[in-house]
Amino acid sequence: MDQNLYEASRKDPFLSAVDLQKEWTPACSVDTVRNRLKQKGLKCRTLACKPSLTQFHRQMRYVYAHSKLYWSVSEWHRVVFSDEKIFRSSSRGALRVYRPVQRSDRFDEQYLVHSSNPVYGRPRFTLCVWMAFGGNETELCEDNEEKEHIFMQDLSSVHTSKQTKLWLQEHNVNVMHNWLPKGPDMNPVENVWAELVRRLEIHWRQTGVRNRDQLWEDVLQVFHELPKEYFENLIRSMPRRVRTVSSKHEGRAKY
């Protein structure tokens, strides 16, 4: 039985434990199926989402990486990285996949779905949060505010609109204009989001989420638990990220 479960899961890693139980072991519980797969080295993981890159995206990513190839850490300290994220009180319904526990193959094609075909759960509460950090300054807020140094924002339509550009010009914000397309792997704020989500999931196992206000308070709490060294290490990772994209000739940095 164990070998049949293992082979079926390896053949189609998107099969859930419930699917495998119905097909192969109707007399056993779903938890038994999960335990048997875990003993075989397979554990249910959150599905990786890989950005869909066109040839234009690849070329522009390489151009950006090449232009920043010789930037030092001190130069990256001048950049104020920013991003937005929608936090959800529940991630039920998100697609998961069984893959080997000890292997670093999260981004293998058989274990991921491209961003052009995402699968999301339906949350009960949502909260849109904006974050920016750079150098020795770190801030988390619900509304965008003027920043100094070189302000980095991605190429979403709300950032590239005429109104946004006009506001930034009127407030003399020095914007990084050549940010690469499809660049979440180059934005260290994405790492912060992932760490916050990880900590929130652990926190919510005991407390749950009663309302939107608590969701915001929990996000703030886990954010302020992050040490300053964490943000410093993210900034120090920028030269490595740039070298990775440049050396892979338009490829993706695994961050």
From TrEMBL:
- Gene Ontology molecular function, alphabetical: DNA binding
Question: Superkingdom, according to UniProt?
Answer: Eukaryota
Q: Which residues belong to any copy of the Transposase Tc1-like domain?
A: 3-67
UniProt domain Tc1-like transposase DDE: residue ranges? 142-201
* Database matches in InterPro entries: RNaseH_sf, Tc1-like_DDE_dom, Transposase_Tc1-like
Transmembrane region(s): none
Q: Cite the Pfam families for this sequence.
A: DDE_3, HTH_Tnp_Tc3_2
A single Gene Ontology biological process assigned to it is: DNA transposition
This chain belongs to which protein, by name? Transposable element Tc1 transposase
